[in-house]
């Protein structure tokens, strides 16, 4: 087994101190290594939008010196900047993602683009929603809207939405990217199933389900 150097990223100091998010990443690494411990572990407290990460650079240097592998629990923990992931991919440092154990350079590149597309889409939708709300005369940042109960309700809604629809959003982004490259719906369905995606009601993807997501995206773009 090669020497693995695990890299974990959490978005806030609170998450780093409490173990929130970090414990799940460590569990994914242990599962990937079948209970074995990585040679080194590096924890970064940093926003996913920033690419200057001393702990990541240290992990890369250690992996390169040992001829080892940089191990990340989830690809989006590395960065949601496509250029950053692609540059790392081409840097000569071997790296693996626990959630994509069979990934190759093609799939890593596709998912990098998907992750960035998703971040940019969410950001733009948030800006548009706030702009529309302000145009209706609503006061943004009203203290009454920031009670602990509302925060908890919002967190629960976001977590539920991520569980129910996160995979579908990523699947749709992958479908659009591969369709633009000229692949058939049947071929795309096969790739989705090979990558472990599940359809909205569970089970694998079929040609019809891929076409349905394409049609739904087209309808939403026209509305």
UniProtKB/TrEMBL annotation:
Keyword DNA-binding: yes
Xref: PANTHER family: DNA-INVERTASE FROM LAMBDOID PROPHAGE (PTHR30461), SERINE RECOMBINASE PINE-RELATED (PTHR30461:SF2)
Organism this protein belongs to: Hymenobacter bucti
Keywords: DNA recombination, DNA-binding
Pfam families (UniProt xref): Resolvase (PF00239)
Biological classification of the source: Bacteria, Pseudomonadati, Bacteroidota, Cytophagia, Cytophagales
Classification via InterPro entries: Resolv_N, Resolvase-like_N_sf, SSR_resolvase
Protein name in UniProt: Recombinase family protein
Domain Resolvase/invertase-type recombinase catalytic: 3-137
Stored SMART domains: Resolvase
